[in-house]
C-alpha cells in the first residue's frame, strides 16, 4: 500500500450560506484520510493507541485550489511524506470525486509520544508498527 483513500460527502453543516465549505473543515477531512490510512495498512488508530502511542499534530498546512460545495463527494488520498524515529508527516490531496478536480492539498506532521506526552523512538517502542509504516510508505518516504 503506497497511499490510502477515503471518501466523504460534504454535509450542510460544513458549509456557509453559499454552500461553500468552511476552510477549517478540510483539516477534519485530512484526519479522516490519516485514520483510514492506518486502517487500510491493517492497524487501526485505536490499536496504535492501545500500544501507548499517540500522534499529536506538531504542524498543519492546507493549500486551497477550488472550493468544495454542499453534497460534493470528496476523495482524500493520503501518503506518508516522511518517517523519522520520533515523527511522521503525511501529505494529502482532496479531490472532487465526481470530476477528479484537485480541491486542496496539505500536510500534517506528528510526534510519536506516550500517554505522558513524552517522545518515544518508534523503532524501539514498537518495532512492528515501525516496520509496517516503512513498508507501506515505500518510495514516498524522504
Description:
The radius of gyration is 16 Å and the shape is elongated. The protein contains four helices and five strands; from the N terminus they run βααββββαα. The mean pLDDT is 94. It has one domain (4-140): Thiol Ester Dehydrase, Chain A (Roll). It is an alpha+beta fold. It has helices at 25-40, 45-50, 122-125, 127-137; strands spanning 4-9, 57-64, 73-84, 87-96, 102-111.
User: Which H/E pattern describes the elements?
Assistant: EHHEEEEHH
- The residue fraction in helices comes out at 25-40%
**Distance linking N and C termini:** 17 Å
CATH level-4 homologous superfamily: Hotdog Thioesterase
Count up the helices: 4
Anisotropy-based shape? elongated
Overall tally of domains: 1
Poorly predicted runs = none
Mean pLDDT: 94
CATH topology: Thiol Ester Dehydrase, Chain A
Total beta strands: 5
List the helices and strands and how they pair.
Blueprint: E1 4-9, H1 25-40, H2 45-50, E2 57-64, E3 73-84, E4 87-96, E5 102-111, H3 122-125, H4 127-137
Antiparallel strand pairs: 1-3, 2-5, 3-4, 4-5
In short:
It is built from four helices and five strands. By secondary structure, it is α+β, with helices and mostly antiparallel strands. It has a five-stranded antiparallel sheet with strand order 1-3-4-5-2.
Amino acid at each position: 500500500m503506497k497511499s490510502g483513500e477515503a471518501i466523504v460527502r460534504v454535509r450542510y453543516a460544513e458549509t456557509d450560506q453559499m454552500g461553500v465549505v468552511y476552510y477549517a473543515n478540510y483539516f477534519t477531512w485530512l484526519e479522516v484520510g490519516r485514520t483510514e490510512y492506518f486502517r487500510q495498512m491493517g492497524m487501526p488508530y485505536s490499536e496504535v493507541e492501545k500500544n501507548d502511542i499517540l500522534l499529536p499534530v506538531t504542524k498543519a498546512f492546507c493549500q486551497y485550489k477550488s472550493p468544495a460545495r454542499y453534497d460534493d463527494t470528496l476523495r482524500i488520498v493520503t501518503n506518508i511524506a516522511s518517517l523519522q524515529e520520533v515523527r511522521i508527516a503525511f501529505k494529502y490531496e482532496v479531490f472532487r470525486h465526481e470530476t477528479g478536480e484537485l480541491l486542496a492539498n496539505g500536510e500534517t506532521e506528528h510526534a510519536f509520544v506516550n500517554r505522558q506526552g513524552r517522545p518515544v523512538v518508534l523503532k524501539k517502542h514498537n518495532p512492528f508498527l515501525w516496520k509496517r509504516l516503512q513498508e507501506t510508505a515505500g518510495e514516498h518516504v524522504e
